[in-house]
Amino acid sequence: xxxxxxxxxxxxxxxxxxxxxxxxxxxxxxxxxxxxxxxxxxxxxxxxxxxxxxxxxxxxxxxxxxxxxxxxxxxxxxxxxxxxxxxxxxxxxxxxxxxxxxxxxxxxxxxxxxxxxxxxxxxxxxxxxxxxxxxxxxxxxxxxxxxxxx
Length: 150
Description:
6 helices; alpha/beta; four-stranded parallel beta sheet; 4 strands; single chain; 41% helix; Rossmann fold
């Protein structure tokens, strides 16, 4: 599986998903890959400390990330594209209709209902932790193969 996680600025939700996916896939012995992008990302967007702290709680220490804008090369690379919110999915479907078959709302693709992962940007560390915990639950469902076909 080549999973591409998409959010707005590629500094919070999609970053957590990318790193958690790599973490859980490696632990399961799966040779899967992950990338992340944003529909409005700029290379100078920094990864907030709340993201780093939340990932550290999962044993992920080295978060070295540069925000990237989504584009055709990453869409073509992916076998599965997970949008963190409905508005992200709508943008992706409009810009990349040829890849629509591999797109899904992240939580829906993980079997956790059709709902958004709320953006924690600018919120408390507790909100980052809650967001990260929700994403981790979705990633575990995907990696364990309980919902998404690989």
